[in-house]
What does this fold into?
Amino acid sequence: MQLGCGVRTMTVKDHDYLYFWHYETREGRRRAVHEYVGPVRDPESARKAIDALEAYTRRAIDAARRRLQSEKARASGR
It folds into this structure.
């Protein structure tokens, strides 16, 4: 399992844009995926980035809990 996410700035045609990145499984491989959030100068972009980080983290924690419960059940012979 590979967990990870973040926010980064990319410059496109001399303008700075904010992207949220995270890992996804595509074609059987883990890849970093970048999702456009908005212009760096827009305060709304920062809010959207924080929301995306929070949502990803929540999903990752839930998935890790489910996997841990499954492994515990398997180890105890259930």
Notes: The mean pLDDT is 91.
